Structures are given as structure tokens and as C-alpha cells.
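From: lab user (bench 3)
To: helpdesk
Subject: output format question, protein + zinc ion

Hello, I'm new to running complex predictions and I'm not sure whether the block I got back is the full result or only part of it. Here's what I submitted:
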Amino acid sequence: MHTQHHPLRGAPLGTQREIVSFHYGRRNGGRKVYVQASLHADELPGMLVAHHLREHLLALESAGRLRAEFVVVPVANPIGLGQTILRKQEGRFDLAAGDNFNRHYPALFDNVLPLLEGQLGSDAPTNAQLVRSALREAVNQLPEDTELMSLRKTLLGLACDAEVVLDLHCDCESLMHLYTGTALWPQAEPLARCMGAQASLLASESGDNPFDEACSRIWWQLEAHYRGQHPVPLACLAVTLELRGERDVSHPLAGADAQALIEFFVQRGLIEGEPAAQRALLEPATPLTGTDVIHAPASGLVVYLRELGEHIQTGEVVAEVIDPLSGAVHRLASRTSGLLFARETQRFTTSGRSLCKIAGAVPVRQGKLSSE
Ligand SMILES: [Zn+2]
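Helpdesk reply: Thanks, we reran it on our side. This is the complete output you should expect:
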């Protein structure tokens, strides 16, 4: 294991933050795994999973069982961790610019094309290595005028050439679920089984380029661009794993999650070992367009009528928003049939705020699919 320190540029005078990455094993035939936690800095279950995962990786490295380089960044967002306001952590949005820390990653397609000019041939694995090399160069050329841009460039630089990228998040109150590219589902399904995901939400483009898509979408863009000329494989399985709710920080959960990740890596041949018996897929994957996000039509007190994990039918009332001054009760019904998998934690809402999510199989939304 070795440790790398990546100082962020653009910090205010007299201050300095850094990303710390831990590297296990050696890159073997180009194989690399990247795991980061708490890009939304106040989403902490992943930080504890990374802590447990590091112990596993250290032991596996000593035993000579790692077949890839594993890079772990347990604290992906020191900027957000530093944003404590009146005892509350603001880890989702950058206070300097208002940006969501997991949106607006650079889309590298246009940057990479000129670098690949005349490079690709007829062998898909060789092409994948050429694309990875071009991605590293494209990320190197990105500007880093602000501390936030420097953070994005650093994280993308660590992840862009990995074959597996796992971005560990959590929701407010939630079941285990994941987001990934539609084309990646065959590769992601074993991960969903290992983790016990109760919703697997698929999109080719969810909007505003979150971290996982910045790593993976380029591959299906290049595959389409060069189709019929040069084969380009989908060589990056990037997944946003939502490790339940923000208060689900415990050793039993994190220990089991880290063990499940190791199980997945063994199944994928990234760690030497006997694969465990395949676990059941708890729920089928659904399109992200099929997830109904219920919004508050007015400000008021939020009362949920249904619990996480309940299957909801179209038209069923899931929550109420109550105005105790006028006595008005807004009854909020689901537009889809599916599993209620996430709810907002706060029980007071402003008008327009998203409150809960139901994973349905039939599209009910279009346009930008990820919530702010
Ligand atoms: Zn998040």
C-alpha cells in the first residue's frame, strides 16, 4: 500500500486542502478499481465502508491476492467537510458557487476525440488502453481555476482510467440502491446482487453529468462514434451506490457492505479467490425515467403515510403536506406503481421540494432526471 497526497489548488490564502488516496496492489494488465466516499461530504455511510474496505485490501495485498490496482479515497470532499454552518454540515452544495458537488463534471468526449485521431485499430482491448491514455491526458489539460474545479479534476484524474468506479453516497432515509448507465446493467447486476440493492436505476444520461457518468458515458459515446470502424468496449463500470440513509452509519452495516464489495471484486476476477454463491437480485432494474419523485405542492408539515420498502400502486397517497394555519391538507399520490425507496428526512417542507421516490418500471418523467 502506498499513500498519495493531492493538494487542491485555488484554496483561499493561508489555507490548503488535499485529497488523500490509498493505493493497493499493482496495475495488472491495466486493471484498476477506484472507490471514493462522501463526495456529498455529509453522506457518511460510505466513509465507514471505505474504512472497512481498506482493512480487507491491506490483508488481501499481503496475501498476494489482488489482481488489480485498488485506489480508495475515503474523504472525497474536504471542501464540503469544512462547510459547517451553525453546527449543521452543508456537504451537498459548494457554498462558494452554489454548485452541487456531484454535478457538472467535465464531459470529455470532445476533448478526447482529437487525442484519438489515427490511434485506434481493430483490437478492442488495445483500443480501451488507448482511450484510457487519452482520458488521462484530457483530464491533465483541464483548468483548475477554483478549489472546486481542482477537486473535480483531482478525483476524475484518479478515476478516469479505472475499469470499475464506485462512488459511495447515501440518500436521506433510504433503502440500498444504485444508479448506473443503462448499457452497463449486465456488468452492474452482480454488484446489485452482492450489495442487496432494492432499486437499480438506469439511464444513459441522467442530466448535469454526475461523477459516475463523467467516467462511464464517454465509453458508449465513443462506441457509437467509431461503430463499424473500430471496436470500443464499455470498459468502465461506473456506479453511484446509495448506501441507505444518512443516519445508517454503523459497523454491522459498513462491515457487511465492505465484505459485499470484496465478494463482487472476487466474482469479477479482480481479487483471487473462490466466488461465493450468487445472491438473489432483490428487485429488477428499472429505468430512471420510471422513478416518480413526489414534490411538495406547498409549504407545510410533511407526514408520510407509507414506509420505505412498501410497494405502492399508481394513485395511492404516499404523503401529506399539512398547513396547520389554514387546515389545508395536500394529499400526494404516486404517479407510478413501484417500490418506495427514499424519503426526505426533514418533516417541514418548502413549496416545490422533492419529498420521496418510487421506483416504477414505466417511464413517467423525461429531461433532467437527477434531483438537485
Ligand atoms: Zn450524494
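A quick orientation on your result: The chain has a mean pLDDT of 97. Let us know if anything else is unclear.
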